[in-house]
Design a protein that fits this description.
297 residues, 18 strands, 25% helix, alpha/beta, 7 helices
C-alpha cells in the first residue's frame, strides 16, 4: 500500500528563541538578531513597509550583495566580527559572517529540528543519515535526542565546522560519523553495501560541487538520489525528510517526488513550507523553503 499524501499543505513557523529573532522586515530586507548582533540581509519577498525603518540603520552588520548569486560583503558598524557563539536547546554552534549572506546556519530550519527531536525521542537509538549536512546543527539536534548519526557533506570546511560544533555541544564522543563526500556517491555505495537507516534527512542546494568536482543540480539529480535514500530505509524506518529551496520548486512538487520514491511503503507524506515569523503583535512571516516528509505513522 503506498503512503497517503496529505491533501493540503502545512506551514511550519519558526519563532525567535534566546539566540535568534526576526525583528523586522520590509523594503526588500530583513532585520534579525543573532546572539548579541543585529543583522540586515536582503530578502526580495519583503516588499511591504518595515515597522521601524530607523532600526535597520543601527544594525551591527549589513550584507551588501554583488552581482553574483548570494555573494557579496558585510559592512559593520564598529570592529568587524568573524564568529560568535550561538545555541538552540542543547546544541551549541558558531555563527559566522560568511561571504554568501548566510551566517553558517539557516534559522527557519529550527521548525525541522523541533520535529526531528520529537520523532527521535520516541525511538530506541535510531540510525540517522543527514545528507548535505553543512555545519551540523541538524545532526547535533538528532544526536542530542539520542540518535546515532552519519553526517555527509561535500565541503571539507563545513564538516570541520560541524565537528567543532559537536565539541561546543559536548557531543564529540557521541556516535557521529563525519563523512566528506558527494552525497550521491555515498548513498549509492551504502545501497550496494545493504546499509539501512531509521531516518534520513536531505537538505540539498539547488546547485553545488562535490569534493572532486562532481556537479549537483537539484532538478536533474534529486529524483535518483531520493529513490536511493528510500532504498536505504530499514523495514521499520520512521521518516524520510526532504527540504529544498529553488525558484521553480514547491512543497507539492517535493511531495510527489517523495510519493514516487516511497511508493512501496505505507505511512503518510506531509508537505508544505518553512517560514520565519517576526516578533511582536503585528508579526509577519516569511516563507523561505519547502519540505516533504514521509513518516511511517
Amino acid at each position: 500500500m503506498p503512503p497517503v499524501l496529505s491533501p493540503s499543505p502545512e506551514t511550519l513557523v519558526t519563532r525567535g528563541w534566546s539566540d535568534y529573532a526576526l525583528l523586522d522586515s520590509g523594503g526588500g530586507r530583513k532585520l534579525e538578531r543573532y546572539g548579541p548582533h543585529t543583522v540586515v540581509r536582503p530578502e526580495p519577498q519583503c516588499f511591504w513597509t518595515p515597522h521601524d525603518p530607523d532600526a535597520f540603520a543601527t544594525a551591527t552588520a549589513t550584507f551588501d550583495p554583488d552581482d553574483e548569486d548570494e555573494s557579496g560583503r558585510w559592512r559593520f558598524i564598529g570592529k568587524p566580527v568573524e564568529t560568535f557563539p550561538l545555541g538552540w536547546r542543547d546544541v551549541r554552534f558558531t555563527g559566522r559572517f560568511t561571504p554568501f549572506r548566510h551566517l553558517a546556519f539557516f534559522p527557519e530550519q529550527a521548525a525541522n529540528w523541533d520535529w526531528l527531536d520529537s520523532r527521535i525521542r520516541r525511538l530506541d537509538r535510531p540510525r540517522i543519515l543527514n545528507l548535505f549536512g553543512y555545519t551540523g546543527v541538524a545532526s547535533l539536534a538528532c544526536a542530542a535526542a539520542g540518535a546515532e548519526v552519519t553526517h555527509v557533506d561535500a565541503s571539507k570546511k563545513s564538516v570541520a565546522w560541524a565537528r567543532e560544533n559537536a565539541t561546543l555541544s559536548g557531543l564529540e564522543n557521541h556516535p557521529i560519523r563525519w563523512i566528506v563526500e558527494d552525497a550521491r556517491k555515498y548513498v549509492a555505495r551504502e545501497v550496494r553495501r545493504g546499509s539501512r537507516y531509521d531516518g534520513i534527512i536531505l537538505d540539498p542546494p539547488k546547485y553545488g560541487r562535490g569534493p572532486t568536482g562532481e556537479v549537483w543540480r537539484l532538478f536533474e539529480d534529486m529524483p535518483a538520489l531520493l529513490a536511493d535514500c528510500a532504498a536505504l530505509l530499514s523495514n521499520d524506518a520512521d521518516f524520510l525528510l526532504l527540504n529544498a529551496y529553488a525558484a521553480r520548486i514547491s512543497g507539492i512538487s517535493l511531495a510527489h517526488q517523495m510519493a514516487e520514491a516511497t511508493a512501496s511503503r505505507a505511512g503518510r507524506i506531509d508537505w508544505g513550507e518553512l517560514a520565519l515569523s517576526e516578533d511582536g503583535p503585528d508579526a509577519r512571516a516569511l516563507g523561505l523553503s519547502f519540505f516533504a516528509r514521509w513518516c511511517a505513522t
